[in-house]
Specification:
The chain has 320 residues and is α/β, with parallel strands linked by helices. The protein folds into 2 domains: 81 residues, Arc Repressor Mutant, subunit A (Orthogonal Bundle), CATH 1.10.10.10; 228 residues, D-Maltodextrin-Binding Protein, domain 2. It contains 10 helices and 13 strands. The protein has a 5-stranded mixed sheet, with helices on both faces. The longest helix has 27 residues. The protein starts with a helix and ends in a 9-residue tail after the last helix.
Length: 320
């Protein structure tokens, strides 16, 4: 049996998802159908492409070689199709943007829209990295700015590419301005052992697991008492009933203080992901610069974030 494009997309999806079940969901087919497709492809190659374990699958030596060639072929194919579409004069005049919930999202959208003009822009803001990734997989969005936790990875469909905007960004803590620790510039995570916590958004992304892991390392188990959508728990924090992890460009408000955590016990990264067939190379560069510039400006304006930002030039994105 000669390899087909569906075989290449299947093995790339399995490798990126780390599981046949998750890959099947990304590809929109049943798990038995994907398993059968994989087994037939393995028989045609005369070897096993993935090893199965308790935590998922990982490529064998043969699988690694197959994946390397498959990704090259798929990249060329996607580029070929995209170039033909552009040559035919059918450049999309509407692009759909997804974004994590961040303080700088308004500035980001404004700059992306200006950079893409006359292409129109629609925006979906979602705190869940998995939801944003699924939006790209199912073509509800064309590109997205996604925040990912360091301890977890969000699988992307084979026809979705990604580029790192920020390789590392810390999570800060929001607490009442009247809290005894609010007069400090940095707070030790262990000093929050007795606090009630608001569950971080995107628990399915691994954010809640990351919080629990970091707190265990600090010697306690967090008392997660509240669940609230982005911004919905602000009054709980302002009145001193809870504390909450926030992204670092978050600004304080009346009765609210944002503080750094000593040693950065919780970190993530920011990536730009896009559908290869919908975003041109020139548009991608313009989007990247707009996103990077907006984020950098907000980081420099934040009295809490700016010192950390200045001390870590290695994470700064290119803005020109």
């Amino acid at each position: 049996m000669d390899p087909e494009i569906r075989h290449l997309r299947a093995i790339c999806a399995i490798a990126e998802a780390g599981s046949v079940t998750r890959a099947a969901a990304l590809l929109g087919i049943s798990q038995p159908a994907l398993t059968g497709l994989l087994q037939r492809f393995e028989r045609s190659l005369g070897g096993t492409l993935f090893e199965r374990g308790r935590t998922g699958v990982r490529p064998t030596a043969l699988g690694e070689r197959a994946l390397q060639r498959a990704r090259l072929v798929l990249a060329e194919l996607d580029s070929f199709a995209g170039d033909l579409t552009l040559a035919a004069g059918t450049t999309p005049m509407l692009l759909r943007m997804g974004s994590a919930h961040m303080e700088c999202v308004g500035t980001m959208v404004e700059r992306v829209q200006a950079a893409l003009s006359p292409v129109e822009l629609t925006v979906q803001i979602d705190p869940s990295a998995i939801s944003l990734a699924q939006g790209l997989t199912h073509h509800r969005t064309d590109f997205a700015v996604i925040g990912m936790n360091d301890d977890s990875d969000v699988p992307l469909a084979p026809d979705v590419a990604q580029r790192t905007v920020l390789p590392r960004l810390p999570f800060f803590i929001a607490l009442s301005a009247d809290h005894p620790l609010a007069d400090r510039e940095e707070i030790n995570l262990a000093d929050l052992a007795d606090e009630a916590w608001i569950s971080p958004p995107g628990a399915d992304d691994g954010s809640l697991a990351a919080l629990r892991t970091a707190c265990r390392r600090a010697g306690f188990s967090p008392k997660v008492r509240y669940e609230a959508p982005s911004g919905g728990g602000r009054q709980l924090v302002q009145t001193g009933r809870a504390v909450q992890l926030v992204e670092p460009t978050s600004m304080g408000a009346e009765g609210l203080a944002i503080r750094r955590l000593i040693g950065d016990p919780l970190c993530g990264r920011l990536v730009l992901a896009w559908c290869r067939s919908r975003v041109t190379a020139d548009q991608l560069e313009a989007i990247y610069l707009a996103v990077a510039g907006a984020y950098t400006d907000h980081a420099l304006r934040s009295t809490t974030y700016a010192p950390w930002w200045a001390a870590h030039p290695e994470v700064h994105p290119r803005t020109t």
